[in-house]
Structure prediction request, 174 residues.
Amino acid sequence: MYSVSPLPLLFFAALPVAKTVQSLFGPFVEIIKALNLPNWLVHWGHPGNMAVVLFAMGGYGTYLGFRIRFSDDVEEKAMAKDLHPKLLAGMFFFFALGATGGVTSLLTSDKPIFESPHAVTGLVGLSLLTIQTVLPALFEGNPGLRNIHGLLGSGIMALFLVHAALGLQLGLSY
Prediction:
């Protein structure tokens, strides 16, 4: 895990974006600090919630995607086609929302944001999920995009598994 270089993100962190995010989150971080929540909750709340989203929503959503592609059962395929986009849209929503929890956790612990490989994989993952969300709208005009959608989705899930491992490493580092 240490072979992933945070250098690209260090450049990003040097931009005013990190300071802007810190200032936007400042009042909320002060509220969290004032609540005197248990340290373990502030420290491990984000990873706990995101692990549930990754494995429950992402894992089952990925399984459904494979059922859409490979099932011969018409009824199962119809159920998967209905639930797959809803479940993974929920995953995308909770990952985007969860990023705010991660930033809050770091700022509450007086740690820098956007300076870890975990932050890099999170930003890349959310960007790829955005592209992934658009692809189904283009299926009708280009059925070959279904293959790209499946490969990209599998790649995104692999990236988020790496992201989870990097997050665990980050969490254990302080």
The chain has one domain: 7-172. The chain is about 80% helix and 0% strand. The domain at 7-172 is CATH 1.20.120.1770 (Four Helix Bundle (Hemerythrin (Met), subunit A)).
